alpha,alpha-trehalose-phosphate synthase (ADP-forming) (Corynebacterium matruchotii ATCC 14266), 461 residues
Amino acid sequence: MNDFVVVANRLPVDLHYDDNGAPVWTPSPGGLVAALTPVLAQHHGCWIGWPGTTTEAPEPFRTESGILLNPVSLSQSDYEEFYEGFANATLWPLYHDLIVTPRYHRNWWDAYQRVNQKFAETAAQVAAPNATVWVQDYQLQLVPGMLRELRPDLTIGFFLHIPFPAPDLFRQLPWREEILTGVLGADMVGFHLASNARNFLHVVAHYSEHDVSGTVSVRDITAHVHTSDDRQVGIGAFPIAIDPTPFLVDIDKTEVRAELGNLDQIILGVDRLDYTKGILQRLQALEELHKAGMMPPRTVFLQIATPSRERIDHYRRTRNMVEQAVGRINGRFGSLGSQVVLYQHQSFDRERLVKLYATADIMLVTPFKDGMNLVAKEYVACHGDGSGALVLSEFAGAAEELSEAFLCNPFDVESIKQQLLAALLASPAEKQARMLRMHEQVISHDVNVWATAFLRCLTLG
Ligand code: ADP
Ligand code: G6P
């Protein structure tokens, strides 16, 4: 039995099989996994999640860092209707402000309920009496309510890793009341930003029978929902952060520079290949700067794009458009010996990523909407020497804390161009002043501060 249990759609590792049919585990993608892994290792906690395949789930096992992994299997229809359907073609676009149109299908909703019930039952089986169970993210919003029904003795937290949309958007969801009731099964609900928490309180006040009191604070609980079954649910904002340790190492920057042809400026993008990340728009900005002859010579843009949700229509389309744009830009502005855009559609190991972050002169992070964006914080963590410059979308949650970045509006290509040029042309002194202030913020508000603040509020009520 476990005193501390995390329930997330994904385990921190994905199961694959090699050519001989032997199981191979690889790190799974995304910010949730990056942030929670060090927290779980510290608590020697139990992590319930899906191993990323539709084959039978393996038995629970402990990782080298002491995390007990408890796999939950998804059938092929769960995968299609729950994961690709309700989670990533209904909720994901709805919560990211309708960058693409959400699809509402009753059979996807049925699958969402079914899979949430499965996760809740697994948590109910493995949690010790009076344990703390921390449920994560948009895929599992019904789990807190279902788990409370099964195990009223538990202390239950819920954290949303993506934005919570404006009330007028959330209102579209045919199952909005059920989602609110599910989330409010928790004792405490956390969001990245106070604005997300306020959106949530607004919809609770307008579309449920529960009462709202107080105002939202950051890293504390001063707002509550009084539920119709007479419970108090704390609501707060807890901006997620990184474990900076792996990013604070000394890097020989000449190595990556040499590999990329000893150019003057390396501009970097690192994202899951998701339409929310604005990869196409940043390519458009680069293309226009090249066309106008405004791009400094001997500059390369390196885009690392992790494969993500590849069978979903809009992901496939985004990948096609990005790859066409890369080809077009290189075809026109590259030469036989050198390309102006380097594109890698693959996952990189941490060590390699750190070298790229540390060497890049400019990091381009231009999402249309992002709950936080840990890539921006990881880049800043690698630049404690004051080098580098971050061009960051105003619509990334990280922009609230990293306000010294070169902030751009990703819906306005001119704005991306201007901020990229400003970063390229800024004096070393200006860049250093901006970077050091952001570095201090990223180091002092690390993932430990985030998890401790949330868990303190959860367990102390
Ligand atoms: P999201 O959670 O939406 O993917 P974040 O920026 O919050 O976005 O987190 C992404 C995480 O995934 C970061 O920890 C980053 O280091 C990691 N990551 C992104 N792209 C790659 C890649 N190509 N290879 C390895 N890790 C990656
Ligand atoms: C974001 C979500 C996570 C998700 C990750 C990767 O970070 O907030 O919940 O795990 O993306 O997406 P995937 O669909 O591959 O799990």
